[in-house]
Amino acid sequence: MLFFSFFKTLIDHEVTVELKNDIRIRGVLKSVDQYLNIKLDNIQVVEEIKYPHLSAVKNVFIRGSVVRYVHLPSNSVDVQLLEDATRREAANQAGKAK
Amino acid sequence: MENLSISDHPPPPPGMQQQYQKHGQHQQHGGAPGQGMPHPPHPSLGRPPQPQQLPAQMFTTAAQLLDLTDKKLMVALRDGRKLLGILRSWDQFANLVLQNTRERIFVPPGTAGATQERGLYADIERGIFLVRGENVLLLGEIDLDKDDDAPPGYDLGDIELVQKLAKEKKVQDKGKEKKKIRKLGNEGFEGENLGEMLL
User: Fold this and answer.
1) Cα(A5)–Cα(B152) distance, rounded to whole angstroms?
2) B194 in contact with A, Cβ within 8 Å
3) What's the angle, vertex CA B123, arms to CA B119 and CA B124, rounded to 5?
4) Is the pTM of this model over 0.80?
5) Which residues does chain B have within 8 Å of residue A53's beta carbon, measured at their own beta carbons?
6) ipTM of the assembly?
7) CB-CB under 8 Å, A60 with B137
């Protein structure tokens, strides 16, 4: 659940989501759920002419399983905190496995 | 699930549920009709005032789809189809029911056979769709102000012509993709969508 919590901290930030079919959608992160399905508001599509089906769309719900990357604004990510949280989670997992 | 709303109170904590159960048992001992099938306690019965907190369902698939209900959506499917319809029902897997669905086919500009610099599109009436969640790539709410205009750079074309061009393009793309996958495979790549093509 670490990345779910992490994405929750990025809500209301502008991100770019790159899908496995190469579409890149830029928008304000509005919501995320346990599958990392993502909801974006006020979207803008990079290379819009290639993806005309998105021209009249203002907000999207993206299924988590089709996301390749999420480009994040670097100044809203606390790398140190994320690192610590990751170590803690890994330690917890290791503890459970034993 | 459909009756949940963001403003609903979260379910009571476990301690309170036990109270409910005791309450129900008490009723049954009193010889209530329909024994063995406990009646659900009335929602207002014995519920103490809720502490103010974020509803637990706030960050769920259901909550994300809730405010899209009864809106006109564009749904992109894994096989490349684009459906436009009104979202009437859904569940936690993003299985969807769409009403008054139209399938929209696009032929991008510069496709072989299409002479122009502008693309073409056409709509086919399809009716009601029940889409299994796994086939959904993304769904977007349509801005009704822009809905009546053709997508920029595209013109409405004759259905049969557009269908024919789209079919040709699909065959072409499939061939290209296959070549690419074969080449990548020879180099030892095993990408995320080598098994299937996402459109």
Assistant:
1) 38
2) no
3) 145
4) no
5) 74, 76, 82, 104, 106, 151
6) 0.84
7) no
